[in-house]
Amino acid sequence: MPARISLDVDPPGNGQYFTSKEVLKGRVIVNLEKSTTIKKISVKFFGASEVTVRSDDHNMDGTRRNIQSPPSIGRSFHEIVSQELQVFPPSNVVQAMNGSERAFKVEEGEHDYRFEFKVPKRAKCWRRHRKNSNNIFRGAISNGIPPSFNDRLRKNQISDVGTYLYSLGRVEYRLEAALYYGRSLMWPKPFKSADVAEKRIELIPGDSASRLVGESLTPAVTPATILDSKYVFTLEDGTEAWTEVHADRLKSVYRLDLLFQQGCGKFDKIYVAFSNLETRDTLQLRLVRLQLNLLEFVTYLAGEIGNRNLSSLCLLNIATDLSIDPKTLRQRPDDDVLEAPLNLLGVEALQQFRFNEQDYKHKGNRLFSFTSCNIRREYRFQLFLDFKDENQNVFQTETQTNIVNIFCESITVQENPPPYCIDKSTDTLPVYVT
Fold first, then answer.
1. Which among 38, 85, 96, 376 is least buried, having the fewest CB atoms inside 10 angstroms?
2. Where is the Arrestin-like N-terminal domain (predicted)?
3. Residues forming a β-bridge with 397
4. CA atoms within 13 A on the CB side of 381
5. In terms of domains, do 142 and 246 share one?
6. What does the alpha-carbon distance between residue 413 and residue 410 come to, in Å, rounded to a whole number?
């Protein structure tokens, strides 16, 4: 083989993935065993969002499909970015050639050619989308380009039906370098494509995260959202009870966010509400277990067919022993309901718990919300609380939040930054040399 071509990409600024604020830079490295005639060397930055969906056993009007008719398969492909750069011969030589397809003889040895690409702010395919179309998700265009998703999940990693269905959608970005051999003008074949090098790029734009930073850093001014538990449980004396989460900062959650610490605005205010409670002093109810799950909903869309995948990730499951103090019961001003707060300050594990501290990857993907033209990834939190009464009867409540924007970036601000002090080891300021 006369030539070997490879890609050497400069690492991202955070050492993990590229963002939309960075420039993709690197080198195309060509090793020639002998002098070789080359027509050109080019690099392409390519990205696409593609899905495959399958209809269920029902038609669009809700009627059941004939068992003998096969299910329809839908496919959707959207080109996000397609940029190409010719690194050899140089641009000034190409202009001087004035359209000529002349090839150049390159000496043996190692040669490298620099390249760089800017990440676009908007997907290439948005121009051909029609408004209110059933073929794309609403909000996909305004959200900019989507992040990488399922780009590293390979067929040999699929071991069950759930993973297979999950793998039918992906957003992939890659760099491709191609070397085209040249031939003498007397040769019957002028040139042929000889070698291609490819490298996947993990890209997470991060624009939407930076736009929402203010929500977590500024005091909440809107009323808290009250999330009631799904079910009401009944105590032995006929008292009906349920739980409520009062949250005012649960629209967006970033990695390393504190979820239970007092003042975080997420799960720091949990109440137990009682209806028809006859006597307060006899109330004996304890919280014995708390479990927090993250529900992931991934929907693939092709044409008017949509497939949804549901995953449940357990974030926290701890045993507790918190008694509800009857003295903390208070009556609401607008009804006869009594409520008591759960005192979570005494549970150290909850006060120190940060969201996704281990930077978990679900099926190879970081945890983040996004919407592309044909893929939507959404999240809800699911909170289970187990209670026991004086007779050891167990009651469980379940609370689900609204859709939450999940980000893999962290915007944690240090509460006690280090003090700035003057170095007294020198009495004079350093001299700056220009």
1. 96
2. 17-123
3. 385
4. 23
5. no
6. 9
Beta strands in 265-409 (DSSP E): 270-275, 285-302, 305-323, 330-331, 338-341, 361-362, 365-366, 370-371, 375-389, 394-400, 405-407
Do both 167 and 224 map to the same domain?
A: no
d(CA 71, CA 73): 7
Residue 97 belongs to some domain of the structure: yes
DSSP 374: S
Pair (271, 196) in one structural domain: no
Both tokens of 374, joined, read 């044909």
Contact 307, 300 (CB under 8 A): yes
Domain ends where: 205, 231, 264? 205
CA neighbor of 41 nearest in space, from 79, 4, 1, 96:
4
With H, G, I as helix, E, B as strand and everything else as coil, classify residue 350.
helix
Give the separation between CA 75 and CA 92, rounded to whole angstroms. 43
- For the chain, how many residues are written? 434
Question: Are residues 224 and 86 located together in one domain of the fold?
Answer: no
Residue 414 has a pLDDT of: 47
Q: Report the distance separating Cα 103 and Cα 182, nearest Å.
A: 5
Q: Is residue 296 part of a domain?
A: yes
Q: What is the CATH number of the domain that holds 82?
A: 2.60.40.640
The SS3 assignment for 124 reads helix
Q: Report yes or no on 152 lying in a domain.
A: yes
**Given this model, what pLDDT does residue 194 score?**
65
Same-domain check for residues 195 and 213: no
Residues 184 and 260 placed together within one structural domain of the fold: no
What are the tokens at 59? 């038609």
**Alpha helices of 87-160 — where are they, by DSSP H?**
91-97
Residues 169 and 248 both lie in one domain: no
68-102 pLDDT, tens digit per residue, is 556 678 899 999 999 999 999 887 777 777 666 77
Tokens 């203010």 correspond to 214
Domain of residue 396: give its range.
209-407
In a domain, 14, yes or no: yes
Condensed to tens digits (0 to 9), the pLDDT of residues 5-24 reads 999 999 999 899 999 889 99
Least Cα distance to 112 among 6, 195, 23 occurs for: 6
Domain stop point among 177, 205, 233: 205
The pTM of the full predicted model, rounded to 2 decimals, is 0.83
Same domain assignment for residues 294 and 365: yes
Amino acid at 240: E
Rg (CA), the chain: 30
Structural domain count, the chain: 2
Closest C-alpha among 244, 233, 223 to residue 383: 244
Which of 173, 231, 183 minimizes the C-alpha distance to 205? 173
